[in-house]
Write a structure and sequence with these properties.
Elements: E1 7-11, H1 18-29, E2 33-35, H2 36-44, H3 48-55, H4 57-71, E3 78-80, H5 89-97, E4 99-105, H6 108-117, H7 128-146, E5 149-152, H8 159-165, H9 168-171
Parallel strand pairs: 1-3, 1-4, 2-3, 4-5
Length: about 170
């Protein structure tokens, strides 16, 4: 782990807490917060879930890759990615190289519970639990490969663990 970049890049499944943890982390570090799902929603004028449904997955992922490339140009920021950002190939690799990648790990049951609290359109025709299991099976190797730090984020407050594991130059 070289920690070359200056950003903190949060990755993980949908409902893993990237946005809520990212906002709190940015306050603690005194850094700007960027939520790429919010950026995408602003770009298309629709909530991110509706954008996925309206654009279709190929166009949605292309727009996501464009936003990943733009985010890679940022410095000293906390960046929350979308759950599928790790599918972004070279665009995600550029963002990962610009910071410390933190994987928020959450158990399937907790992801399903969180997802049911904020209904979102399904990404597959499967049941919510089966969908989470399938997507996690596909994405976990990518999260693992990208992560400089992995944080269990299923509990109430993983921020102290995360702060203690960030390199001193990022903690400030």
């Amino acid at each position: 782990m070289s920690f070359e970049g200056t950003n903190v890049v949060l990755v993980g499944m949908r409902a893993s807490g990237k946005t809520s943890l990212g906002r709190r982390l940015s306050e603690r570090l005194g850094r700007p917060f960027v939520d790429l799902d919010d950026e995408l929603a602003a770009r298309v004028g629709l909530p991110v879930d509706e954008a996925l449904r309206s654009l279709g997955e190929p166009a949605f992922r292309e727009l996501e890759r464009e936003l990943l490339r733009q985010a890679a140009e940022r410095r000293d920021s906390v960046i929350a990615t979308g759950g599928g950002a790790v599918l972004g190939g070279d665009a995600f690799a550029a963002l990962a190289a610009a910071g410390v990648v933190v994987w928020l790990q959450v158990e399937v049951d907790e992801l399903v519970r969180r997802g049911s609290a904020r209904p979102r359109p399904p990404l597959t025709p499967l049941s919510p639990e089966a969908e989470v299991r399938r997507l996690l099976a596909e994405r976990e190797p990518l999260y693992r490969a990208a992560a400089d730090i992995a944080i269990p984020a299923g509990g109430p407050d993983p921020i102290l663990d995360l702060l203690s594991r960030l390199p001193p130059r990022i903690r400030g």
